[in-house]
Amino acid sequence: SQQGEEDPQALSIQEGENATMNCSYKTSINNLQWYRQNSGRGLVHLILIRSNEREKHSGRLRVTLDTSKKSSSLLITASRAADTASYFCATVSGGSYIPTFGRGTSLIVHP
Amino acid sequence: SAVISQKPSRDICQRGTSLTIQCQVDSQVTMMFWYRQQPGQSLTLIATANQGSEATYESGFVIDKFPISRPNLTFSTLTVSNMSPEDSSIYLCSGLVNEKLFFGSGTQLSVL
Question: Does the pLDDT at position A1 exceed 60?
Answer without folding.
Answer: no
